[in-house]
């Protein structure tokens, strides 16, 4: 019958237990590292989703602005087309068109002759502007007077 040394078997068991403990610690460390990588990946995914959402919103706003600009251009072209109509449908419309034409500002006089002085030319331009834009005409008049005084 073979006898075994109890102290030797205990030493083997102790080394095996120590080896298993170190392997368990390594596995736990590996699990923690993987958990950390998963957290980082989730955070990166969250940032990417947030950026995608922001870019989608910006694209939507850009489309909305472009649509509004197109609509504005279409309104302008409709107005131009409406004003270009020369043949009225009814006599009342013809009369209304004539009265509207009378209410419009008169055509500006021809440009001043080249022999006129610059001050005279500026005054004639200011006079023409007074009927359309009185505030701009007054500021221009003030500037011309300042330059003439200098």
Name the beta content range.
Answer: under 5%
Number of helices: 4
Shape: elongated
Question: Using DSSP, what is the number of strands?
Answer: 0
Average predicted confidence as pLDDT: 76
Question: Percent range for helical residues?
Answer: over 70%
Rg, Cα atoms, Å? 45 Å
SSE order, one letter for each helix or strand: HHHH
- Gap from first CA to last CA: 132 Å
Structural class: mainly alpha
Give the biggest sheet.
Answer: none
Residue ranges: pLDDT <50 for 5 or more in a row?
none
Overall description:
The chain is mainly α and 150 residues long. Helix content is 81%, strand content 0%. The chain is built from four helices and no strands. It has helices spanning 6-83, 91-103, 118-132, 134-149. Helix 3 (118-132) runs antiparallel to helix 4. The protein is elongated. It starts with 5 loop residues before the first helix and ends with a helix.
How would you briefly describe this protein structure?
With 150 residues, the protein is mainly alpha-helical. The chain is built from 4 helices and no strands.
Topology:
Elements lengths: L5 H78 L7 H13 L14 H15 L1 H16 L1
Helix pairs in contact: 3-4
């Amino acid at each position: 019958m073979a006898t075994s040394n109890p102290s030797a078997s205990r030493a083997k068991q102790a080394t095996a237990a120590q080896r298993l403990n170190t392997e368990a610690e390594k596995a736990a460390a590996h699990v923690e590292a993987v958990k950390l990588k998963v957290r980082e990946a989730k955070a990166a995914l969250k940032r990417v989703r947030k950026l995608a959402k922001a870019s989608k919103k910006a694209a939507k706003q850009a489309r909305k602005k472009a649509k509004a600009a197109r609509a504005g251009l279409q309104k302008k072209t409709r107005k131009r087309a409406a004003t270009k109509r020369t043949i009225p449908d009814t006599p009342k419309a013809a009369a209304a068109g004539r009265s509207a034409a009378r209410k419009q500002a008169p055509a500006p006089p021809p440009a001043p002759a080249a022999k006129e002085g610059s001050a005279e030319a500026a005054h004639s331009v200011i006079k023409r502007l007074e009927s359309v834009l009185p505030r701009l005409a007054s500021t221009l008049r003030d500037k011309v007077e300042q330059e003439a005084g200098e």
